[in-house]
Design a protein that fits this description.
single chain; mainly alpha; 11 helices; about 85% helix; about 0% strand
């Protein structure tokens, strides 16, 4: 794919380091740089046009309510077991890893607060986003990519059905709506299993664990990290649908679209997390 072309420059630089560079090798490097930069700008340009076309039809009638509900079920309820398992594992690992460290500093009583704050403010949202980007991003990319190469999308357009409204908008809106709910499920499972892991070593009631963990927590500590996952959902939905709509080359192209949908959505999700965390610190100090 063009967006990955710049990797060739890195490889060429590694092999050329410490060696004499011949004119033809310099030409190859220059061509690689040019094609890589051009490919990246072209990809972002196509993405901008895709987002503009999506924005024009997303909230315009007629509404695709039935398809939206079906996508919310597919993205939300079918991702719930995996998200809950990931959240529970995170709670257990946090409890096991931080207990010894806090004991060394005489702050073992702070373990509930460490678990609750860590899961609610960062671990829960990010893990949920990455899990959903792996499962849902791959599914959307493969589904739309298969429809693209089999010309089903062309058939929809010939039947006066806008594929951006029926296929893309419903999946993007479903991702935006379901990510915060899945994050709440991951937070609950993580805190609960953190309590279970903690009480097996040092018995403590769930009520005391929760009260100790949430002491000093305000809504400004809970709401922004939870609702920032709507941005994660927007990224996952747009990138997965975009890569699916760009699919070409038969079944091989479907495989490439699926892989790129997962990789790029996860990458942009991590980058967005850095920006969102900083914005939350600015607006909710």
């Amino acid at each position: 794919m063009p967006i990955y072309a710049s990797l060739a420059l890195v490889i060429a630089s590694v092999f050329a380091a410490g060696r004499e560079i011949y004119p033809q090798q310099l030409g190859v490097v220059e061509s690689t740089i040019r094609s890589g930069v051009t490919g990246v700008f072209a990809w972002f340009g196509e993405l901008a046009l895709f987002c503009w076309r999506l924005a024009r039809v997303a909230f315009a009638p007629p509404w695709e309510g039935a398809e939206l509900i079906r996508q919310m079920d597919s993205i939300g309820s079918k991702s719930l077991p995996l998200v809950a398992l990931a959240g529970a594992a995170t709670g257990i690992v946090l409890s096991l890893q931080t207990r010894d460290t806090l004991t060394q500093f005489g702050a073992r009583s702070m373990l509930p607060a460490v678990i609750v704050f860590s899961i609610v403010k960062e671990s829960g949202p990010v893990i949920t986003g990455l899990i959903v980007s792996g499962r849902v991003g791959a599914g959307i990319g493969a589904e739309i990519g298969s429809m693209k190469v089999t010309e089903q999308i062309d058939a929809m357009e010939a039947s006066a059905v806008d594929p951006y409204k029926y296929l893309v908008a419903t999946r993007v809106l479903a991702c935006i709506a379901m990510l915060p709910l899945l994050t709440l499920a991951a937070d609950f499972c993580g805190i609960f299993m953190g309590w279970v892991s903690n009480t097996l070593v040092q018995p403590i009631s769930l009520r005391l664990f929760f009260e100790t963990g949430t002491k000093g927590m305000e809504f400004s500590d809970f709401l922004p990290p939870t609702f920032k996952t709507t941005v994660y959902g927007l990224i996952i939905g747009i990138i997965a649908c975009f890569q699916g709509m760009r699919t070409e080359g038969g079944t091989e192209g479907v495989g490439k679209s699926t892989t790129s949908a997962v990789v790029l959505s996860s990458l942009f999700l991590i980058l967005a997390d850095v920006v969102l965390v900083r914005l939350i610190q600015v607006f909710y100090p």
